Each structure stands twice: as structure tokens, then as C-alpha cells.
Protein 1
Amino acid sequence: MPEPFTPPIKFARVNPTLARGAYPRPINYRYLETLKLKTMIALTPNEITMENDPSLYSFCSKNKILLVHFETDHSAKDKGKKRGIPIESEQVLKILELILTKERSPIYMFCNNGGQITSLVVACLRKIQLWNLVSIYDEFVRYSTTINQNDRAFIESFKARIKLPSADKRVDWLWNGMSPHIIQNHPSMKYVLFGEDLKEDAVQL
């Protein structure tokens, strides 16, 4: 019998070049190889190294996958209504800028259980994509089971000045089919376009 293809727990496609889920285990590696990943984004308390997870570290090295770590709060362990926010808005901003860069795609983004932390980042991405809050919250609870007041407040208050790559270096799906007028009048985001040298252009949306 051939070895099965087993995706990580809570695996799902967020957009054509972005997938999400739980911390990948060796049983998932064969499936992840089919995604031809260029980047993995780890939203975990501890950095993934050869010392603390030689299996995943070696998998990324073997497949030439850039493993990017964003440290999340060790202490945010409460459940339900008391659950805190284990990630900072500045971190989310950096993650989104990475996600929107075409050359770093395809990307697999994960937290330990594929729930709250990953869902917070995806929710902020959906705000950029002009989803309404009802749809954002519906997607959130699909993977995180519950959404509390802290989660809602973090998502609703997320406002940012995002550095966008030029159109040819940006993922194709971000505003596919939307009018430029709608994008330029985004209710909560400001965008700065960057040229090939990554120096800020004069154009601000």
C-alpha cells in the first residue's frame, strides 16, 4: 500500500497561494510536499530549530522552504471568554506583508492547533479583502470553535498602513475583480506601494 497523503489538522486553503492549519507532523510532510511551498509561517511560542524539532527543521531545509517564526505569547492559555490575544498587531502587519508578496508564495501558515492565532491573522487579511464582519466571524469560529470579546475587539480595531509590493510582485488574488475606487477608499487601511528596490514610492492609497 502506498503511503497516504495526510494534511495537517484543520488544513484549509485561505486563498490560492495561502494555506492554513495546525503544526505539521511527520505524517503530514508527504502531503505538504505536493503544495510546492516556498514559505512556512510558524505562529508559535518557540522558534523551530534543529534542537527542538529536527524533523520539521530538516523537512524545510530539504525542500528549500523558508521557515519564518513569529513568537506568540506563552502565557495566553485561558480558554473561552477569558482567552487573551497571544499576538501583537505589529506582528500581524508583518505577516500580512509577507503573505501578499508573490515571490514568497505558496505559503503554509500554522499555529500549534490551527485555531485562534492563525484565525486572528486570517481575519485581519479578510478585512483587507473587504469582507464584512459577519463573514469574518463565521470563518473564525469554523476553525477556533469560539470567538470571544477580546478576539472581536482585536479584529475590529485592526487598522494599518501596509507596505504593498508593486502589482507585478503582489499576489494576484488580493483585490481580484474589485474596482480601484473601492480599494482606494478602504475603510480601515492605508496602503503604500513599493517599487523593485523596496523604497517607498510617492503613491499612497
Protein 2
Amino acid sequence: MTPPIRLASLGIAALLIAGLTACTGEPEDAAPLPTTPVVQLGGPGEPNRTLSPDEAAALTSPSYSEDDVLFVRDMLHHHSQAIEMTGFVVDRSDDEDVRLLAERMDISQTDEMAVLEKWLQDRGEPVRDPDASHAHSADSMPGLLTDAEMAQLEAAEGEEFDILFLTFMIKHHQGAIQMVQELYAADGGQEPEIDTFARHVEADQGIEITRMQRMLAEREG
């Protein structure tokens, strides 16, 4: 990734926080009626219809669902492991490109975790599952490394570490993208803030996967 990754993550944070502020601000006496015409698309064979100001004002954004809550909690755990992985880099790699990549990942995912925690707190949802019924393991969460894989990465050094780090982080990122896809498949991600974040994860980590695949090919070749 290039330096704008931090700006991108901060931009997503700003968008989410702005949305959260709008949801949690002091209630107003009366919401202003829309002044711009709002057109409702007609069904197949039916004409479009311009809504009245009262009808347009009654439209509301989709609310969050339990699938969204589980997604956020899972992504917090997923990001936490990624940050643990990047923490190994300083002492185990002399590769400047790998070190820079890890630093940027650490910054961006730390910022994103703060956004996700705030999202839960502002909705009165515990950051951790109070029932502990949603297990966090490599078997239950896509891309999550097993304890054995984490131990293998921690024990490696030099070029061996660089190759393992890139290999495991590609797997980790692919898992995050799968989590986004599963969220939408379950009809989650309808709330604007969650939709924005999920699409950011899918796009941002997809770009990083492409870069890491290129770096891995260079080091293995």
C-alpha cells in the first residue's frame, strides 16, 4: 500500500463518526421537510412517482441487525490478530518493504478498531459477546490463523519470516473479504455506516492482497 492508506482509514472513520453523531445527537423539535423532489422508482411496467414532502420526510435509513453486530465483533477479533502479526515484524524482518507494509497495516487496522468499538458502544451493544456463544477460532472465522500457525510465524526470522508473514497475511485478508461477503449474503450491511465500512474493507484489503502476492512472488523467486 502507499502512504494514503492511513488517510483512507481516517476518512472512513470520519464518515462513520459523522453518521454516528447524526444518530445520537440531541433530538430536534421537528425535522425539516425535504425541499428537493424525491422520486420513487416504479416496479416493472409501472411509472415512477414523485413523493410528497411528508412522504419523503417519513423515509428512514435501514437500522442495524444482529448480523451487523456479530460482523463488527468478529472483525474486531480478526483485526486484533492482524495487529499481533504485524507486531512480530520489527524484531524478525530486515526487509524494508515488509516492515513498511506491516507498519501501515498496524496503523490502519488500529484506527478501524476504534471506529468499530465506537459503533458498538453508541448502540448500547457490548464490545464482547456477553453470552460467549460466538466462538473465535480458525475453524469458525475465515482467514484466522491457528495457534500453531501463529507460533510458526513467531519462531521464524529473516527471509523465512518474510515469506511466512506474506503468506499468512494474504490468507488473513482473504478471510476478511469472505466475512464481508457472508455479511451481505445474510442480508446484513444495510445500515449506511456498516455498508461503508464493509465496502472499505473489501476494497482496501483486496488491494493489499494484490501487493502482497507480488511481494511474495519476488521473494520466493
Protein 3
Amino acid sequence: MRRFPAEWEPQSGVMLTWPHEDTDWADQLDRVEHLYADLAALISRYEPVLNVCRDAEHAATVRARIAAAGADPESQRFGIAPSNDTWARDHGPIGVRTDAGEPLLLDFRFNGWGGKFAADRDDRITGTLRGSGIFGETALEPVDLVLEGGAIETDGRGTLLAVTRTLVDPRRNPDLTRDTIERMLAERLGVHRFLWLEHGGISGDDTDGHIDTLVRFCAPDTLCYARCTDPSDADFAELQAMEQELRALRDPHGNPYRLVPLPSPVPVLDSDGERLPAGYANFLLVNGAVLVPTYDNPADAEALDTLGRLFPDRAVLAVDCRPLIRQGGSLHCISMQLMEGVLA
């Protein structure tokens, strides 16, 4: 039977799809490219980075930026694939282990979160990279189901956690019921327990409630989650309702999960006064470290401390994600881990 590994398991690298002037990052391109370069250098202390660039000229620019950030060039890989945008979590490959223990990449469809944004080039990125040989001998299996990587969480032991509306959605998967989607995911991912949430969401999020902005597995028996304690906050009702749902969940042994709240940052607003989707559940695990999004916010220190206690054997590293949330996502959203054995 296939197995969908947890994010804390060994990785062969992290994929980043780089911004360029034809993406929504155009008005802050220099600033966000600096962030990507610093992130590539930071990740490469622990594992290789696959940098996906739109063409060879773009790759040369990216290579120079990463070198200027102080990264070891031997730790960097480069792939060429045209792109609409940069959300690698949602257009990147999802890895499973086969019955024989070999890595297998799944290429689910991506349609811009239900057609909100153009995604035709993004939907082809994984296949293009596989064709270029960047994944070596790792097989790639196309799946005719719209599924974004940020929509699903796993304990690595057959349990999948998701917000229902991010998969059971007529704009993503018309005419597919939850039962049908469960059967497809059981076959492709090897999961056999489904934990569905009906509540949860943070202001400014375009994904309809991706689980990686709300709740994350930190161990098979532990969930950390976005919590709001201010009744005047616009997110209070949904996050409180989600918290009650989490309290009702049970692990495979019938026990309640250990629930660890993450703080809510003081609202971060754009220049028009609109709230941006700042949150701490969007952290990224790499070999030996947990990378935590921060926002120059009073809650940053508490979030770093909480995640440090949840991952005591890993370095805890802050990444200033204020440029990212201007486009509706954060650290986990722009990255996709590649399981051990995938990168050539």
C-alpha cells in the first residue's frame, strides 16, 4: 500500500518557483526576489533547493541573486518551466512511497484555486520538470483531480486532514462528492482516515481555507492551530468554531489530539487598509530546522517559542514574510518539500 509521508520525514530538497516580471509580484519584484534568494541560501544549509525559473535568462539572474545571498552553489538545482505565479505548494508535485518503498510523484491538477487566477502554465510545471530529468528516475503519475498541496495535511500514518470546501468544490472538482474524492485519495495517497473540517479561515486568504494556514501536524498525536481570542477580530468566530471541531477529533487509537494553539498576529494591513493573511501555521519543515514566518509583529516571539517547543530537535529560524503576504500567502505556500530520493 502507498504511504503519504509527513513533512518532518527526510527530504531530498525544497522546490521554489521564482517570481518574475509577468507575475503579480511585478510591483515589488526586487524586494521579493531578495526574500527568495535569502530563503534559498537559508534552506541550503540543510538540504538542496530546486529553483524553478521561467527560462534560461531568468535562471542566470536567479543564480546570481542566490550567489549574492551567500548560498553554496553546489546546494542549488535549477529547473526551467514557464509559470503564471509562484505558489509551489499548490502546483508542485506531491510525493508518496510505493509498496516497494520507492518515491513516486503525483501530479494533481491545479486551476488557480477554483479559477480565481490564471494557472495554465503552473498546471504544467511538474510535468515539464519531470521531462527535463530533474527528478531523476522518480516516476510521475498524473491525477485527474484538482488538489493543492496546501489543502492537505498528514501524520504520515494514513490520516489526512483538510477543510472540506477546498476539495469538495464545484469550481475545483465539479460533480465529485466527498465519498468519491475520498476513494480517489485513498487509492493515490494511501490514506485511510479522513478528518474533515467545516470551519476555519483567515482574512485575506484566496484559497478558501487551506489547512496549511490553519492547522498542522507536528507529530502523529499533536496538532498546532491558529487561535483567536479577541471577540472583536473578524476571524474570531470561524477560528473558534474550528477549535471546537479540533477538540472533537480523535487519533487512530481513539484519543483526543494534543492541541497546541499558535498566537494570532496583530492584524497586518496593506496600503488600502485591507487585512493581509498573516499567520504562523504556515511554517516550513526542512531537515534539521523549522522555518517560521514572521511579520515584525508583537506575536512573532511567542510563535517562535511555541514552534521551538514543538520541534525541540530542530533549529528554529525566523523568515520575514511581510513581502509574501501582500500577495495572499506565506512561507509554506511558496515552497514544496521533495521527499528523500526524488532529486537527481
Protein 4
Amino acid sequence: MPEFLELLPPAQAWEVFRNALPSAVLPAERLAVVQARGRVTAEPVVSPENLPAFSRSTVDGYAVQARDTFGASESLPAYLKLIGEVPMGAAPSFSIRRGECALIHTGGMLPEGADAVVMLEHTQSSRPDEVEILRAVPSGENVLLAGEDVRIGEVVLPAGVRLEDAQIGGLTALGILEVNVVRQPRVGILSSGDEVIPPERQPQPGQVRDINSYSLSALVERHGGLAVRYGIVPDRPEVLRETLRHALSECDAVVITAGSSASTRDFTAAVINEMGAPGVLVHGVNVKPGKPTILGVCNGKPVIGLPGNPVSALVIARLFVVPVLRSLLGLSGEVWQSAVRAVLTVNLASQAGREDYFPVQLIRKGETLFAEPIFYKSNLIFTLARADGLVKIPASATGLGVGEEVDVQLL
């Protein structure tokens, strides 16, 4: 049986792979903002106006000149003349002069002359046209000034930002109804193996349903790509060759599951090398699970060969497929791997020089979060389905000890 040419540490494997990836981000397309959740900005978004467009109150209360309240307290209130009420959705027809105030509601436009708002609960009515101020306020108290959030011409969103709820709301607040976003990367997914059958079929002895095409499709789409499944490829190089060529002609990247280990029938690496330069860059990564991983680039398009075992495939996809998607989308600075600190409940052994990943369940007891390892075999998908996250044992360690605080990468 042939051996892997070289087992690279994951970080080094990614560096070799990354250096051969295309530097250009995918082209842009224009979308309605209401359809752009989860998409990535293709260019900076510049504000066409100030936000807020006018100075407004952040509370229910009375618009005042702050200096008229100085020294006011419950024992020595200030008395101001009530001259009216600020209408909602319209500009007030009056201004505030010394010794005057006006009733204003949250979001109401601050009248000319006023520079602060006293909260309603810090006032009381003494007469129909007079208000007692029971607390002093400084200038700017309980007020949003025009342009305090965003000024006209300001870059509100740089290129490479994923649009989520706050960003969508901000764009509509500025009246921006369309935005240029990066086209979603099309990722071709090939599942290989004579023993693999479609999930709608009943397996016969020796057969297994296709898991990887569907779990990897979900991962790709979760991270901003479009998954294109090319079905199940039998263990024949000519079929893999034709299917891969077809997928590369239609997609921005291709993922192949199974066919990556060093055995006599595993010809994936050879076929990838036929598809264009530079071909296979890495064949074998010093990680568990997922050692028989292939990383290649064919004429500017990434091709990743994943192990066939479902747990291994998903763990390695998080290490290499997700970063490829982020590169194609031009994502900048976004932290995508959320992590929590937890206390390990048992000892975990590891092989020095190899990076290991263990699925864990998170259990809270009182104020402490515990990480309970799930001991598994890499072909059991529900091992990962039951897990809350992964604990990494670095290559420099021979394991982690019970009671040790660890980082858990949330799934």
C-alpha cells in the first residue's frame, strides 16, 4: 500500500493551500436589502444622509434649555413654563426660550432652542401651564443629535462584512434599499464509493446511505455558499475524472468525499492532478480525525478531498472548506468560530506531534460549564450530532487532564 508523501500540520497545510488560492474575490451582484441577510458586502457602503436626520429625544419628558435646570432638586425644584407638546412625526412649530419647556415623547424632534430633555419621572405638574423640574440635566442629556450615529458621506459598512440583522436595519434606516454583495460561491460536492447509495434507498448488506453530500451541503450553505451535489461517483477513475471536470466547469470549488486515503483503489489524488495546475498541494494532514485529506488547486479553483467517514469529513471541512468559502467571499475580520471555556471532565490522551479534535457535550452545573468528551468512531455521524463543540489538543501536547480548563469550539 502506498504511503502519504508527507503529513503536514494543519496550520502548515492551510498555509501551503492558501498561497495557491485565487486572490480575487468573486464578482458582485446587486440585491434588495431585504433579500441580503447573510450575504457579504462587495464594496464599501457610504451613507447618503445623516442618521439621525434630526436631533430627537430618547425618552418621554420635557425639552428644555439645560441651563434652566441647573441646581434643581426635589427639595428645590426649578419652575418652567409649559408652552406646548412636540407632535410625533412632524417638526414642532415653536422654539424653546429661557424659562420654557415642552412635552416631548421618545423619538420626537427636539425643538429649536432646546438642548436637553428631562425625563418625565423627574418632573411633576404644578399648574396647567407650569412644570416642576426635580433634577438638573446637562446639555445633551436624553438627546440623540443629528448625525450622531452616522454622518453623510461616512463609510457605514466596509467591503467584506456579512449582513445580519443590525446591518440590514442600518441600511434601511438610511433609505438604502439595494446593496452590492459578493456572489455566493458554488461548491460542487461529489460523494464516491461503490458501497454508497442515495438516502432514499434501503441499504443492502455492505451498503451505506450517502451522508456526506448532505451534511457538507448544509455546512457550505451555512457559511454563505451554494452547494451543488453531483451525486455518487462509483470507484472508477474514468467516472470520477468526467464528474470532476464537469463540476469544475460549473463551480468555484469542489469537495470530494472518500477516495482520499492511500490504498490501491483510491485514485482521487491522481485524478485531481489531471485537472490542472498546480494540482495536489497536500496529501495527508497530521490531524485526527482526517489524516487522509487532499488539498489541491486546479487552474485557480480549490479542490478538497475529504475522508469518507462522516465525522472526519465534517471536522476537516471546518478546517479547510470553511476558510476557502471565506476567502472566496472576501470576508474580513469576522470571528466565525465561537468558543467557550469549560472544564474537562475526564483525561484525554493524544499522540504528540498530531493535532486531535474531540467532540464534547457541554453541561452546566451551578456556575461552572463542563466539557464531557464523546468517545467515538469516525463513521458514526450521531457522535457529532450529539456534540455541542470540539476540543482541540495541540500537536505539542500528549493530552489534556481532568479538571483542566479548555476552549470548546462551538459547532
